[in-house]
């Protein structure tokens, strides 16, 4: 349990990503937050699921996954 702050959002200086029970929880995500969640999920070989059970697409298999990328988060 814990959280990190995504500092790369264009409109919000800090977006909390809350880690609970093996999941990352974000309140009221906009399209750019969902895109960041898909990027993180792809690197972790995970999926992004919405409140209504829908799954968001990940990057295509032809795109390389940057597993050692430094994420713009801070604790």
Which helices and strands appear, and what pairs or packs with what?
Layout: E1 2-6, E2 15-20, E3 23-25, H1 31-43, E4 48-49, E5 55-56, E6 73-74
Antiparallel strand pairs: 1-2, 1-6, 2-3, 4-5
Unreliably modeled segments: 59-70
* Distance between the first and last residues' Cα: 13 Å
Shape: globular
Question: How much β-strand is present in the residues?
Answer: 25-35%
Query: What is the succession of H and E elements?
Result: EEEHEEE
Largest sheet: 4 strands, antiparallel
What's the mean pLDDT score?
A: 78
- Tally of individual domains: 1
How many beta-strand segments?
A: 6
**Alpha-beta content class:** alpha+beta
* Sheet with most strands: strand arrangement: 3-2-1-6
The radius of gyration over CA amounts to 12 Å
**Count of DSSP-assigned helices:** 1
User: Which bin fits the share of residues in helices?
Assistant: 10-25%
What can you see in these coordinates?
- By secondary structure, the chain is an alpha+beta fold.
- It has one domain.
- The protein is built from 1 helix and 6 strands.
- The longest helix has 13 residues, at 31-43.
- The radius of gyration is 12 Å and the shape is globular.
């Amino acid at each position: 349990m814990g959280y990190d702050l995504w500092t790369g959002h264009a409109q919000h200086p800090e977006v909390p990503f809350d880690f609970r029970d093996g999941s990352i929880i974000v309140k009221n995500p906009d399209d750019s937050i969902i895109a960041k969640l898909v990027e993180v999920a792809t690197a972790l070989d995970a999926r992004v699921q919405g409140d209504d059970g829908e799954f968001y697409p990940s990057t295509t298999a032809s795109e390389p996954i940057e597993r050692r990328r430094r994420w713009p988060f801070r604790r």
